[in-house]
Amino acid sequence: MEEKIMLTGIRSTGTPHLGNILGVIIPSVSIANKNTKHSSCIFIADLHSMIQIEKENNMITIKNNIYQIAAAWLAFGLNIDNCLFYRQSDVSLVTELAWYFNCFYPYQRLALAHAFKKEIKNKKKISVGLFTYPILMAADILLYNAKLIPVGKDQLQHIEITRRIANYFNKKIGKKLFVLPNAFLQKNMFVIGTDGNKMSKSKKNCINIFSSDEILKKQIMSIRTDSKSVKEKKNPETDYIMSLYSLIAPVDKIEIMKKRYLKGGYGYYEAKIALYEYIIHKFSSEREKFFSFIKNKSLLDHILASGAKKANRIAYERLNFIRKHLKFNPII
Ligand code: TRP
Question: Cellular component per GO (predicted)?
Answer without folding.
Answer: cytosol
